[in-house]
Amino acid sequence: MTDVPLAFPTVVPPWPHRDRLRITGVGAIVTAPGRSPLVVVRVDTNEDGLYGLGRATL
What we know:
This protein is mainly beta. Helices cover 0% and strands 38% of the residues. It has strands at 23-31, 38-45, 51-55. This is Mandelate racemase.
């Protein structure tokens, strides 16, 4: 084993840095299309029009 420290490259995200971005709410949408349980989560932010959707069903 060597004593050489690992160097990680600097990565710049493809979007602007948002220091003031905050999560303002999380909501769950529970449904069962075709009798198959499905849970979708919506994450709202303090920036108009910016939100996320995700599948929360295991």
